[in-house]
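Issue 218. Parser rejects a valid record. Input:
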Amino acid sequence: MQSKFSKFHKSVRAGFAYLETEFGCGRFEPHQHDNLLQTKYINESIFVWISLGPPAYEISLSFGRCGIDDRRDRRPFDVGDLMLLNETEDWIWKALPNESKIDASIREYARLLFIRGNDCLIPKPEVYAKMIQNRKVHKRNWLLEENDRALRNKAKKAWDAKEYSDAFDAFATIKGPLKQSELKK
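Output the parser choked on:
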């Protein structure tokens, strides 16, 4: 019976073979550190890391430009960035019968990177600029939603305490649209 280590790397080699054949990446020998299994592909322009390990023990795919996105002060790109790259396209996960979750994840992440991330592998600067912009927009939206959520909680507490002026002030500072029930108050 194959170990989890050898099964992981065999599946990675099969799924991501195109990185070697079509993009000239070298494959760093797979290694295991603590409970982290990892395979790295690198050429003069890009890197791709496929990992399995804590805390979730799910497949992780990271990629980016060498010397830029692999610095300590930067965060590599991942599957989420690929999904946001072409929001208008539907992505359908293709599960195969009798395939393990890990094998399916590796195969589908390889397919996703090849199809949606092909311009990232070339690498086209405008695609990376778009992914950076997408991150900024989604971070800004998340912060606004978190702020609105806190203001809604503050308004509810003030309303429940019959401090209507404070409730009104909290509702007035919410950036997103008010709900019907909030408008009635």
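Fixed in the parser; the record now loads. The two ends are 66 Å apart (CA to CA).
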